[in-house]
Amino acid sequence: MQKPGLPEGTRDFGPEQARKRAFIFDTIRSVFIKFGFQPIETPAMENLSTLTGKYGDEGDQLLFKILNNGDYLKDADPDLLATKNSAKLIPALAKRGLRYDLTVPFARFVVMNRHNLTFPFKRYQIQPVWRADRPQKGRYREFFQCDADVIGSDSLLYEAELTQIYDEAFARLNIPVTIKINNRKILYGMAEAAGIAAQFMDMTVAIDKLDKIGIEGVRKELLERGIPAEAIALIEKTLGASSPEALRPLFANSETGLKGLDEIEQLYRYLAKIKLQNELKFDVTLARGLSYYTGCIFEVAAQGVQMGSIGGGGRYADLTGVFGMPGLSGVGISFGADRIYDVLDILDRFPEALAESVRVLFMAFDQATHEYAFDCVSQLRAAGIPAELYPEPGKMKKQFEYAAKRNIPLVAIAGETEMQQNILMVKDQASGEQKPLTISELIATCQA
User: Fold this and answer.
1) pLDDT digits (tens, 9 = 90+) for 326-385
2) CATH of the domain at 273
3) Per residue in 211-235, pLDDT tens?
4) Measured between alpha carbons, how far is residue 305 from residues 141, 212, 345 in Å?
5) For 184, phi and psi rounded to 5 degrees?
6) What pTM does this model have?
7) Which domain holds residue 323?
8) CB of 228 within 8 A of CB of 286?
9) Is residue 324 classed exposed, middle or buried when 0-12, 13-18 and 19+ CB atoms within 10 A define those classes?
10) What span, in angstroms and rounded, lies between the C-alpha atoms of 168 and 162?
């Protein structure tokens, strides 16, 4: 007999966990809607041509490929098969892949539906994504993202709005966070100042690992990528800056870097009179490895918990251009729902009420009272109260054990006397208090 198992990096969620996840999704969704975002959904799989080349070399390696239908080897080059060169074989074996994030599929959606959209278009999307990463704490191969994007405007107003969305959503979730901001133009200015503009992507990929491998690890990776030691020294000096103002002297010869500083300062002006509930911090070391970011970038870290980022995003100047619609700027953020779940679990911050689903369990002694209880449970459900009837009448001990294991707060007992008087004997499982109630009184009790 085959032993059942899950693919590495994936998880099952039982009823209690699923309710907690729904709480996260519903909380974030309500904030998105408050700020005027509209929902869309896209397929789990996209054409590999849509996904490839949008996330940098490392991102491309983490794409899950889907083998072509039928005899997927029939079009493969025999010589390539003999060499076992996977990278060169992929175009013949797989034309589709699982989506890596929600942003690239969104750009594809915009281009295909541009005649039906009103710009600027504000969308939110809550769906799973897949990455062929090495599973570890807080990192999964299948996980949900909750994204909000605005496309069709260069206005930094939207960076300010997205900062507010992060702030409000995490306040509602009861997770204290630090919202880190930077700008890819500032990073490009860093590369220009160091004389390595042509190696900008090599630099940002290395810097993006700073929190994982430390400055020594970043220095080593920069050297391995062919960046001169004197340039690395200047990069390290720049990474030590604590404010945008401190960077201006270093960017005297970088127009792009100075523009990035201007954009950060404009964002601060928008938020100057807004009382945020969480810390907003400029972090020049924030890089965001995805290659499509071109302006302001965001990352969110939970305070008091050892966990990777629980949110991130940024401005992309021309993501739709690769799909034939150039010049359409956008900006977006993403919430890492699975890591948010883990943080709430570690901090024990889920609302207690989420443990309850069924409010009342009906119990009966025999078939006649079971039918009476069925009528009663139907009336509670009609009033919008989650209720359940134990399937077999009789043994009270077994029924009470079921109620306790399910954490059902109230039990309503239907006996011969209760049926004749059109009442129920209702017991509060927490206090042990027991009293007779009519259906109307029970409904009122549950709605109080």
Assistant:
1) 989 999 999 999 999 999 999 999 998 776 689 999 999 999 999 999 999 999 999 999
2) 3.30.930.10
3) 889 888 989 999 999 999 989 988 8
4) 22, 15, 11
5) -65, -25
6) 0.86
7) 15-44+100-347
8) no
9) exposed
10) 10
